[in-house]
């Protein structure tokens, strides 16, 4: 159903909704709240100083608006509530003025100052008197929570819904029905409503997800790939060109890949290992074997910077074997690009490195035998489709630097074979990690100075506070000022934040890479895999805001050569949790701790696993439900209970078709 069929949705609103991924009325109904405001109406007499409260009131005097400066206004009016008359002040809500008429009943949210008899409101509500639990949705600028509440409730009137939970499991768990769940999730009357509806909706998504994984696993085990003539001498000739000994886990992963490629089963392998554990060599070996058997390879990285880094390090090894490597990114010139595409089609290029767009579009290989994808970007159904459209069934190798506990990996990557690299290359120094309180920042500045004197570079991560979708850069600029003061303006500082254009970002990254910039302040998590070996210190402000796994990944930005590196976590809170990082440099150990402490917590850092994006379920926190869904969907598949279920039958047909 078309969004425009909903009362109140104009073209302008439609565009806003589209940017949230909402394109139809069905999407709108499934745009679930990410949290709720519990509105507890109180008597104004009970308002506690400086605490946010919600009170009902009646307007007794029309509002006056003062325009103080551009984008800044202040509105005053008087209300009565429980026989007390008091002033209300609210900023930047002049647009409410016409709705605030004499004798109108409203609900005020904000803080009451008894002495001044003034209520500073942060919000005014006009019709929440019945519903005391208010859903809160992710928004974009120009679309308010109230807009969404209105639109969604209009959409709910259409009673649109599909129920994907097989009947036997609805029975087994006594789930409420879908229509009821969808209505309750948007309009809960109690916490119980939220629990019952979200449990049901999450289970539904996770069942669907695990059903696909289980089915993929089943057919991956049988799916035919390429058969290659390989001999065990291949390993020895590869190792001859390496400047180091391989670790035990690297060797084991390579052995497995050798077998995968040699036999005719299609390879679907995930190599999981910490940053710096040496996954690139393992992947390079796969490319080498694939080359020996006469096929081309493709390697896809999540960003151009990473693609470039892969190109440099892999090419260095592969030139020894006269393997022809090319790099194709958005910044490749048209002329060069045409040449690369031509050579690729003719089979003159043996390995093409680029971003994930490689596999789509007009890139044609002569004989593609192996696809490697870096950073757990899984092939979704559509991408596999792309490959089979080209008549290809290459082996696939996934690399991921997000260490997660083995049992967990076996669930969510259940369709893949797993190689874990736990052992670190020899001679690598542990990164010294220390927690500092904000008050002790002088000590950190001193340590920074020492590193700078040695000619080393420093990352500083400072998370931004987001205000209605707008980023507040103030804190970062203050930080820059602090450093300039401490280092007497002698040190060049760069700031990387989400609002920069790609060109500006690249410029800053390049300046940092080339050593022009000495301190790089980043407001987001630094791109996974960015490699500037001269950086020997990373400082994370408000470290408590990050999960352990994310912090560990951040720490992995340093310690990339044999010089001692440091990681300083600055925080006044949550010290016990952060101490795990002081104690260990082992990503798998940390992820296990994280798992124990916060459920499945922060296993993926900021990202969801690959392309699996859920409307309500969260792989990070809904582990219990995930396990249920895994067991049930296995049973459903094994006992062939899906036979008369059209929805799951379709999933099977779709997946089978594209394999
Ligand atoms: P990852 O891709 O897992 O983050 P890399 O493959 O980039 O890690 O390896 C990090 C660094 O360690 C590279 O410079 C690589 O050459 C080096 N390296 C890899 N394996 C070994 C090893 N067994 N011994 C010593 N150094 C190694
Ligand atoms: Mg094979």
What does this molecule look like?
The protein has 659 residues and is an alpha/beta fold. Among the domains are: 41-130, Nucleic acid-binding proteins (OB fold (Dihydrolipoamide Acetyltransferase, E2P)); 234-263 and 278-400, P-loop containing nucleotide triphosphate hydrolases (Rossmann fold, 3-Layer(aba) Sandwich); 432-584, 3-Layer(aba) Sandwich (Rossmann fold), CATH 3.40.50.300. Helix content is 37%, strand content 20%. It is built from 21 helices and 22 strands. The strands form five sheets. It has a seven-stranded parallel sheet, sandwiched between helices. The protein has a six-stranded parallel sheet with strand order 15-22-21-16-20-19, with helices on both faces. The chain has a five-stranded mixed beta barrel with strand order 2-3-4-6-5. β10, α11 (334-345) and β11 form a beta-alpha-beta unit. α5 (178-186) packs across α6 (191-220) and α8 packs parallel to α9. The chain is globular and about 90 Å long.
Overall geometric form: globular
How much of the sequence lies in strands comes to 15-25%
- What count of helical segments does DSSP give? 21
CATH class assignment of the domain at 234-263 and 278-400: Alpha Beta
**What is the name of the CATH superfamily of the domain at 234-263 and 278-400?**
P-loop containing nucleotide triphosphate hydrolases
Would you identify the CATH architecture of the domain at 234-263 and 278-400? Answer: 3-Layer(aba) Sandwich
What strand line-up does the widest sheet have? Answer: 10-11-9-12-13-8-14
Percent range of helical residues: 25-40%
């Amino acid at each position: 159903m078309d969004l425009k069929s909903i009362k109140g949705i104009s073209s302008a609103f439609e565009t806003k909704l589209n940017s949230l991924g909402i394109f139809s009325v069905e999407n709108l109904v499934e745009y679930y709240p990410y949290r709720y405001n519990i509105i507890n109406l109180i008597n104004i007499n009970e308002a506690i100083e400086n605490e946010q409260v919600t009170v009902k009131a009646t307007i007794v005097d029309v509002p006056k608006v003062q325009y103080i400066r551009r984008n800044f206004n202040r509105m005053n009016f008087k209300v009565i509530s429980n026989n007390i008359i008091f002033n209300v002040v609210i900023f930047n809500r002049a647009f409410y003025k016409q709705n605030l008429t004499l004798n109108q009943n409203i609900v005020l949210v904000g803080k009451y100052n008894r002495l001044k008899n003034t209520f500073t409101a942060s919000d005014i509500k006009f019709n929440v008197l019945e519903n005391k639990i208010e859903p809160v949705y992710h928004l974009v600028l120009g679309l308010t929570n109230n807009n969404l509440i209105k639109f969604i409730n209009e959409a709910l009137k259409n009673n649109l819904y599909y129920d994907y939970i097989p009947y036997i499991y609805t029975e087994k768990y006594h789930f409420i029905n879908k229509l009821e769940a969808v209505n309750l999730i948007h309009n809960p009357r109690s916490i119980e409503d939220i629990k019952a509806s979200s449990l049901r909706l999450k289970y539904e998504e996770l069942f669907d997800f695990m059903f696909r994984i289980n089915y993929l696993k089943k057919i991956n085990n049988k799916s035919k790939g390429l058969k290659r003539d390989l001999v065990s001498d291949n390993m020895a000739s590869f190792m001859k060109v390496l400047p180091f000994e391989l670790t035990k886990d690297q060797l084991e992963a390579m052995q497995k890949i050798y077998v995968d490629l040699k036999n005719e089963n299609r390879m679907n392998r995930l190599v999981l290992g910490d940053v710096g554990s040496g996954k690139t060599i393992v992947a390079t070996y796969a490319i080498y074997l694939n080359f020996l058997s006469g096929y081309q390879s493709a390697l896809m990285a999540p960003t151009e910077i990473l693609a470039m880094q892969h190109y440099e390090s892999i090419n260095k090894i592969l030139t020894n074997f006269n393997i022809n490597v090319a790099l194709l990114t958005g910044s490749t010139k048209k002329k060069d690009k045409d040449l690369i595409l031509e050579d690729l089609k003719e089979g003159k290029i043996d390995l093409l490195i680029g971003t994930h767009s490689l596999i789509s579009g007009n890139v044609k290989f002569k004989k593609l035998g192996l696809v490697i994808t870096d950073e757990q970007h899984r092939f979704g159904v559509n991408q596999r489709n792309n490959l089979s459209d080209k008549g290809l069934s290459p082996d696939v190798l996934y690399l991921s630097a997000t260490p997660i506990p083995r049992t967990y990996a076996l669930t969510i990557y259940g369709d893949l074979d797993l190689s874990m690299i736990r052992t670190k290359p020899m001679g690598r120094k542990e990164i010294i990690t220390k927690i500092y309180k904000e008050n002790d920042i002088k000590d950190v500045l001193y340590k920074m100075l020492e590193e700078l004197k040695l000619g080393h570079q420093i990352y500083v991560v400072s998370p931004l506070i987001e205000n209605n979708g707008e980023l507040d850069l103030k804190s970062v600029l203050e930080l820059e000022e602090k450093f300039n003061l401490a280092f007497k303006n002698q040190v060049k500082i760069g700031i990387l934040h989400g609002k920069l254009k790609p060109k500006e970002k690249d410029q800053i990254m390049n300046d940092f890479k080339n050593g022009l910039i000495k301190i790089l302040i980043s407001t987001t998590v630094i791109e996974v895999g960015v490699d500037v070996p001269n950086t020997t210190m990373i400082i994370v402000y408000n470290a408590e805001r990050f999960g352990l796994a994310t912090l560990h990944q951040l720490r992995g930005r340093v310690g990339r050569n044999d010089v001692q590196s440091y990681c300083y976590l600055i925080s006044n809170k949550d010290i016990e949790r952060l101490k795990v990082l002081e104690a260990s440099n082992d990503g798998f150990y940390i992820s296990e701790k994280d798992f124990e402490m916060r459920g499945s917590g922060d296993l993926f850092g900021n990202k969801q696993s690959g392309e699996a994006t859920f409307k309500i379920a969260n792989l990070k926190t809904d582990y219990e439900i995930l396990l249920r869904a895994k067991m049930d969907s296995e049973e459903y598949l094994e006992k062939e209970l899906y036979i008369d279920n059209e929805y799951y039958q379709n999933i099977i047909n779709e997946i089978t078709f594209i394999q």
